[in-house]
Amino acid sequence: MGQWYRLGSSREIVIYEKPLEDITSSDYQKKHFGNLSVNNQFKADVNSGKYDVYSFDYEDGTNEYKCIDEIKAAVESGDMIEVDGVYYMNGVAARKIVQTTSGNAKGIRV
């Protein structure tokens, strides 16, 4: 069966709880990359990490999201550094946001 088998059927209701980080990081992805169509190329790009998002968690309890293309550009320009596969901005290590399967088909997370 396909990933979206019976999705949207009036007889099928799915309810799930999402952490706030799931929502805010997904919103950041959508603002950065736009609202993309789900097709085979999109799924391949998601699986390859093209739309990965990271969080920089600061000591004051705030955080800042960056998508992988922004991070790679910042490393190239010297605004961020990469040490042993970990990205650092202002001395804070990036934490990759785990992509969930509970996102909607119009956004990045699938």
Walkthrough of the structure:
With 110 residues, the protein is α+β, with helices and mostly antiparallel strands. It has one domain. It contains three helices and five strands; from the N terminus they run H-H-E-E-H-E-E-E. The chain has helices spanning 20-33, 40-48, 68-77, and strands spanning 53-57, 63-67, 81-83, 86-89, 92-96. A five-stranded antiparallel beta sheet has the order 2-1-5-4-3. A hairpin with a 2-residue loop joins strand 4 and strand 5. The longest helix has 14 residues, at 20-33. The chain is globular and about 50 Å long. The model is unreliable at 103-110 (pLDDT under 50).
**Structural class per helix/strand content?**
alpha+beta
Sketch the topology as an H/E string, one letter per element.
Answer: HHEEHEEE
- Proportion of beta-strand residues: 15-25%
Shape: globular
Helix content: 25-40%
The N- and C-terminal alpha carbons lie at a distance of 16 Å
Count of structural domains: 1
Major sheet description: 5 strands, antiparallel
pLDDT averaged residue by residue: 81
Unreliable stretches: 103-110
Number of helices: 3
How are the strands ordered across the major sheet?
Answer: 2-1-5-4-3
* Oligomeric composition of the shown chains: single chain
Radius of gyration, rounded?
Answer: 16 Å
What is the strand tally? Answer: 5
Topology:
Elements (H helix, E strand, L loop, with lengths): L19 H14 L6 H9 L4 E5 L5 E5 H10 L3 E3 L2 E4 L2 E5 L14
Antiparallel strand pairs: 1-2, 1-5, 3-4, 4-5
